[in-house]
Each structure stands twice: as structure tokens, then as C-alpha cells.
């Protein structure tokens, strides 16, 4: 187990946002945190990263109690991609190089530069190296933030809606790259997501939050019409398109043969 979260609680002023959240994640796993707007997904990631201070509970990474560590020690273990990325008058190259800070002792080394170069290549963003981040589009900036988290070489990646600003091709490429990095480097990724179909495609396990609590947790078997309706309050059909499980809004009364013109076989499962 690479990450363990025990009985985590968080309050904004007197309002309880997270109630006794508990789960574990193994190395090589991508886990999607799902749930409606305002349920506490970002708050949970910020508690795991110690940006926010939980009222109770514990977080361990590789057996180390995160709450006993300093900012730089945490940055060596966790790469965090926030939902809203801050900008400034920096080139993309320098912004990504900043991700190496937890590893730099005196000065930037050849190794640091090599790692930054390789991540620019990996994410197909070499064309952005010298662009200023305060002149970038939302999607370009999101890629810079993901690149910065990768050069940190963390044990755990925490990604808050990592594809929210990306076009379809970039979404697929970035999620596939994260998936591969998690497997190759035996790390773990925890991503908040709204797109259930992308979650089904790229995550191994799912944590569904409702009312600040873990409502369901597990593999693909927990993504059922009943659970999705309980969590989001929306009836859905779960089916398959070209062998891939997918979720489409609709009620069981939906008749695929007459109500929909695609070749989706929703309702088959
Ligand atoms: N700084 C803050 N002060 C007080 N309450 C806050 C603060 N930030 C967030 N909240 C509240 O905490 C709750 C959880 O917010 P959070 O951002 O974690 O939700 P989320 O699940 O990530 O939502 P979304 O899917 O819309 O991004 C919300 O009700 C929100 O209004």
C-alpha cells in the first residue's frame, strides 16, 4: 500500500465538509474521486496534500505520517495539480523546472534539465517551452501544471480535474500518459473527475462521495445505475460501446432501439 487515509475529517469554520474518510491505494493504481459539485473532492485532495489541515485522522504515504512532515518533504512525496493554476511572468520551461525544487540542493543539475526535457517530450509540449505562462490558454496552462507535477517524481499524484480545460485528443493523451507513468514508476494517482466515462476508462478504482462521506468504493462493479443515481440524483443506463463500459443519462424505460440513433448497446449489462 502506498497511500493510506484514516478517518479524515475536515471543517470549514463550523461546517463539516469531510466525515471520517478512509481508504487505501496500492502502487500502480489510478483512483478516481467522483461526486457532485460541492461534495468535497477538492477539499479532500487539499487535505491529502496538507494545503488544508484536517480536524482529525491521518494520512500515510509509504508508511510516513504526512502530518509530521514539512512542505518540502511533502513535495518530494506528492505532486499536486490544482483545479485553478496560478500564472506569472515565467516561461513554461522555468515553470516546469520549479517542480524540481524539492530535489535541488544547491543548483540545477544536468539531471534536473534532462527530466524537464523528457517530460516536455512525453506530453508533446516542446512547442510551449519558451511561451510565457501568463499568455497561455487554459489547456496549455493545465499541461504545464501536469508537467510540473511529473518532474517532481512523486510517489503519489493528486490531480484535481486534470482534463477540465483540455480538448478531446489532449484529454485522452494526458490520461493515457498518467496511467502509463503510474504503472512504469510504481506510483499512484488520485484524480477528481466529472466525466464518468473517462473515469471508467482510465481509473482502476472509484471513490464516490456523497454528503462528505464515502458512499461507495471499489472497482468497476461499484459503478451501477443505482449508485450513480444515489450519488448524482440522475437516472443513468450503463452499457457498452465497442467493448467499453459507458454511462449515459436516461431511465430504464429508455428504449435503445427507438429512443436513440447511435449504435450504443446501453442496457446490455
Ligand atoms: N475557502 C472556503 N471557505 C468556506 N467554504 C468553502 C471554501 N472552499 C470550499 N468551500 C465549500 O466546501 C464545500 C466543498 O467544496 P469543494 O471545492 O471541495 O467541492 P468539490 O466536490 O471539489 O466541488 P466541484 O466539483 O464543484 O469542484 C463546498 O460547499 C464549498 O462551498
TrEMBL record:
Q: Which UniProt keywords apply?
A: ATP-binding, Nucleotide-binding, Transport
Read off the SMART domains from this record.
AAA
Q: Does the keyword ATP-binding apply?
A: yes
SUPFAM superfamilies noted in UniProt: P-loop containing nucleoside triphosphate hydrolases (SSF52540)
Question: Which EC number(s) does UniProt give?
Answer: 7.6.2.8
PROSITE patterns attached to this UniProt entry: ABC_TRANSPORTER_1, ABC_TRANSPORTER_2
Q: Which reaction does it catalyse?
A: an R-cob(III)alamin(out) + ATP + H2O = an R-cob(III)alamin(in) + ADP + phosphate + H(+)
Top-rank EC class of the record's enzyme? translocase
GO MF term list: ABC-type vitamin B12 transporter activity; ATP binding; ATP hydrolysis activity
Which Pfam families does the annotation name? Answer: ABC_tran
Q: Signal peptide position in this chain?
A: none
What residue stretches are annotated with the ABC transporter domain?
A: 3-236
**Family, per the entry?**
Belongs to the ABC transporter superfamily.
Q: What does this protein do?
A: Required for corrinoid utilization. Probably part of the ABC transporter complex BtuCDF involved in cobalamin (vitamin B12) import. Probably responsible for energy coupling to the transport system.
Protein name as it appears in the record = Cobalamin import ATP-binding protein BtuD
Species of provenance? Methanosarcina mazei WWM610
Give the organism's phylogenetic lineage: Archaea, Methanobacteriati, Methanobacteriota, Stenosarchaea group, Methanomicrobia
Amino acid at each position: 500500500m502506498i497511500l493510506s487515509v484514516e478517518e479524515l475529517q475536515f471543517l470549514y469554520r463550523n461546517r463539516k465538509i469531510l466525515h471520517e474518510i478512509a481508504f487505501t491505494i496500492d502502487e500502480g493504481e489510478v483512483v478516481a474521486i467522483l461526486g457532485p459539485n460541492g461534495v468535497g473532492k477538492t477539499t479532500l485532495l487539499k487535505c491529502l496534500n496538507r494545503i488544508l489541515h484536517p480536524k482529525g485522522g491521518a494520512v500515510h504515504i509509504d508508511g510516513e505520517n504526512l502530518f509530521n512532515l514539512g512542505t518540502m518533504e511533502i513535495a518530494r512525496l506528492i505532486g499536486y495539480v490544482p483545479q485553478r493554476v496560478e500564472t506569472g511572468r515565467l516561461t513554461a520551461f522555468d515553470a516546469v523546472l520549479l517542480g524540481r525544487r524539492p530535489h535541488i540542493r544547491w543548483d540545477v543539475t544536468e539531471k534536473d534539465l534532462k527530466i524537464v526535457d523528457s517530460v516536455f517530450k512525453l506530453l508533446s509540449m516542446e512547442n510551449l517551452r519558451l511561451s510565457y505562462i501568463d499568455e497561455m490558454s487554459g489547456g496549455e496552462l493545465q499541461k504545464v501544471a501536469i508537467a510540473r507535477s511529473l518532474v517532481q517524481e512523486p510517489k503519489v499524484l493528486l490531480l484535481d480535474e486534470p482534463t477540465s480545460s483540455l480538448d478531446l485528443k489532449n484529454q485522452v493523451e494526458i490520461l493515457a500518459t498518467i496511467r502509463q507513468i503510474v504503472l512504469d514508476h510504481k506510483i499512484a494517482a488520485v484524480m477528481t473527475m466529472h466525466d464518468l466515462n473517462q473515469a471508467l476508462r482510465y481509473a482502476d478504482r472509484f471513490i464516490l462521495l456523497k454528503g462528505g462521506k464515502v458512499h461507495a468504493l471499489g472497482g468497476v462493479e461499484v459503478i451501477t445505475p443505482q449508485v450513480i443515481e444515489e450519488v448524482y440524483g440522475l437516472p443513468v443506463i450503463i452499457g457498452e460501446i465497442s467493448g467499453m463500459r459507458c454511462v449515459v443519462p436516461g431511465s430504464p424505460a429508455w428504449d435503445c432501439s427507438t429512443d436513440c440513433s447511435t449504435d450504443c448497446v446501453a442496457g446490455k449489462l
